[in-house]
Design a protein that fits this description.
This protein is an alpha/beta fold. 32% of the residues lie in helices and 18% in strands. The protein is built from nine helices and twelve strands. An eight-stranded mixed beta sheet has the order 5-6-2-7-1-8-9-12, sandwiched between helices. The protein has a two-stranded antiparallel ribbon with strand order 3-4. α4 runs parallel beside α5. The longest helix has 16 residues. It is globular and about 55 Å long. About 2% of the residues have low confidence.
Length: 275
């Protein structure tokens, strides 16, 4: 009955694993409203997780109110991709998100640093604590979908997010290599063990369209995502090509200009699944 979870353990009569372990979901402040929380995760770094977060958020923002919580504290890239430079402000008590050109609310540690290239050299528990603060101490005003861009792996931050945030589902990002597929299974198994619903898989760098003949070239070998999806009964949401134009738009802070017709179908599927 996990899909019916209200994330309010205090008033719940079920006997689920989270309640047995005394895990209590964080609550938003009184100025905030978030209907759905979607985590974007990966088993390892370098698979384009933040890019996937950005293009999904941009597509959803066409018809919904969207926010992004950049939980990759030591490697934040969301502000750069969207060209957001305005620092976070406060109303005296809570953080006020910065906004992208198209109106997406963004909270990231890079929007708090004087220099965006300054390293964040903190231990895991401190980083996880900041992620919780970003969630509960930010004014998330009338947000339909909050995307949480998580660091790779199965460490402190994913554990904290899965346990403490009211996550309605996660999207797992991978790429075609055997190694990545193996590591992705770890992330999937972690989510299943913690009763976090898995919305689907996204394969990045899936193929390259030849500029001369338009043939699809599998630069990283044959895709393994269909087998992983079959093994775990998880749908494949999207296969993204390796496209230099995507990189150019991200470098220029214009990720909202990425145009992929398949994203609308993904939005319809996810919106229907979570509502």
């Amino acid at each position: 009955m996990e899909n019916e979870c209200t994330h309010d353990c205090a008033s719940c009569t079920s006997d689920c694993k989270s309640k047995k372990e005394g895990i209590v979901k964080e609550k938003l402040n009184k100025k905030s409203s978030v209907k759905k929380v979607i985590g974007i995760v990966s088993g390892k770094g370098g698979v384009g997780k933040s890019f996937v977060t950005s293009i999904f958020a941009s597509e959803f923002n066409k018809t919904k109110n969207v926010g992004i919580l950049d939980a990759d504290i030591t490697g934040p890239s969301i502000p750069k991709m969207f060209g957001v430079e305005e620092k976070l402000k406060t109303d005296g008590k809570y953080l006020i998100p910065s906004k992208t050109k198209q109106g997406i609310d963004v909270v990231s540690v890079n929007l708090m640093l004087e220099n965006e290239t300054s390293p964040v050299i903190w231990r895991g528990p401190v980083i996880a604590g900041l992620v919780l603060q970003f969630f509960k101490d930010t004014v998330w005003k009338d947000i339909d979908y909050l995307f949480v861009d998580m660091p790779p792996g199965t460490g402190d931050v994913p554990l904290t997010v899965f346990q403490s945030l009211p996550v309605d589902g996660i999207i797992v990002v991978t790429s075609p290599q055997d190694l990545v597929s193996m590591v992705v299974k770890k992330a999937v198994n972690m989510a299943k063990e913690m009763n976090v619903p898995i919305i689907g898989l996204v394969e990045n760098y899936s193929y390259l369209n030849c500029p001369d003949c338009s043939k699809k070239i599998n630069l990283f070998g044959d895709s393994k995502i269909e087998q992983v999806a079959k093994d775990y009964s998880i749908p494949v949401l999207l296969k993204l090509p390796l496209n230099p134009e995507f990189a150019r738009l991200c470098d220029k802070g214009k990720v909202e200009e990425v145009d992929l017709a398949e994203l609308k179908e993904c939005f319809n599927f996810i919106d229907k699944k979570l509502n």
